[in-house]
Amino acid sequence: MSATANPAAVEDVQPAIESRRGLLRRELLRNPQAIIGLTILGIFVLIALLSPVLLSQDPKTKVGSVFEAPSSAHVLGTDGGGADMLALLVGGAPVSLIVGFAAAAVSALIGGAVGLLSGFFGGKTDVALMRLTDYVIVIPDVPLMIVVAALFGRSLTNIILIIGAIYWTTTARLIRAQVKSVRERVYVKRARALGAGNTRLIGRHILPQVAPLLIANTVLLVAYAIFAETFITFLGLGDPSLVSWGRLIENAFTDDAILNNAWWAIVTPGLCVTIVILGCTMTGQAMEDALNPRLRVGHLSVKRFRLRPLQGRLDSE
Amino acid sequence: MTGFDYVGKRVLFAALTVFVAITLNFVLFRTLSGDALSALRCRQCTPQFKAYQRHELGLDKSKWVQYRMYLNDLAHGNLGKSLRSEQSVTTELWPSIKNTMPMVALGTFFSIVLGIIVGVITAWRRGTFVDRAGLYSGLGFYSMPPQWLGLLMVLFVAGALGLPTSGIKDPTLGILGDASTWDVLVDRLRHMVLPAMLETLGEDYVLTARAKGLSNWAIVWRHGLRNALLPIVTLVALSLGYVIAGTITIEYVFSYPGVGLAVVEAIDQRDYPILQGAFLLLTLSVIVFNLVADLLYFRLDPRVQT
Asked: pTM score, two decimals?
């Protein structure tokens, strides 16, 4: 049976491919969790993008006395260096977000590539790559990051690369599992039988199916990366010339904000980190939920008792 | 494949991982970063003294010889000497290890109990207020950097309760500090238990059990939780790395004299042998716990054969 001889068959296949992405969009717009998450991310990205416009001077400039309480002049008070907290937070946003997004992109790139190759080619490639992944998973990530950061210097690029090079393992496993199932689908086999090469199979047939999951995972990785940045910076291993939220938490600690009872210097940067991570996690989880409908049904659940959708079942297996 | 094969395979994998970790440790500290002495930044040292030290530490030999020496030293339990105190790394780290172990153990234990409870309840009450409360409070705690949560505790809780906030080996303080690292594990467990429970509760045999007239408790316990518990074993072992990470910053915040504080001080003083020793130690403990988890998993569910 050839696909071109039967136009109806082509039309059958097309919506099936589209539906996954359509489903994701539909589910996301219906899910309040996703909407809240996306709004949070949108606001913070906007602040980060506009921060050069919003700040009239270097945020570290001393504008008041040390640990000045919030007032009309300094809405969020001042830090241990007498700089305005609000300005510091706005100035720190781009750095924290760049670390988060760039490191997540590095992770997604490595993890996506490893997962794709491993799942698509199978055999020895699979064994070798998964063995590597197993080793990297077992080595505790934060101590490794600390060691690498301590040994290789404290620049922003280093921190991004370190975080990215460590957090790709879950992505690799996730993508590998997905690729393995997609590879066995009929349309992929048919495309292969029609003479499609590996590059075309991966690029045209596998990647579009896996991409939504990869994106969902990357959004979750952004949260991890921002988290990791605060960790590294807190231990004094951040880029000394840059202001980031992690650095503000560290400054509050080393400048003894606690002894001065300057809660505003401690609470605000952590709150920014928490809110952004919350936004990423909510968005990422909502996306994963939409892609894995099996998790939505429980026979004991009180309200949402309904039959498992057939489509979802096929999708998740 | 027999059970013996499985156990052998896991042990072999753990041994290989140990080897990989040791090699990584050597490569990171000895090859990629110049040598240990250039980092010491000893301004008063004469070139002769540096050469002498270099010879003492074997840094003048080829990397390959150094690697063999390193392996040989490790085999004899010799992790090198601290650059600051000239004490051996093991003597330096041992008291810290003794302080950290109860914290990690206690923290893990409480997290498991709390995580399972929250996970089961939220899975059972899926779609209700309880589920959402569990979800959002868990999500909130999960999003907070532990060092920040620790600082908040010092700021708001410790002061109010009249607790000391630093430098004391008081177990209550350890627990307080620990609480800020537990939350993450609790939520991770909830994350794990919830889908596992949901997936089992979505199985047809649960529907059958319900139709049979079993009480909800019986279903949750007999069919749900017992099946959902299996992956938890693995998760706890894998999360150990995370708990350790939290512990490092928390010990720093509370000046609790454990491995974490030792690491921070070693970074500060550029005392690389200590850092190297602590990293190896943390890695080895994670590998050992993973092995234990694998074997335990096999004991609980002999079907696994991979």
From this structure: 0.78
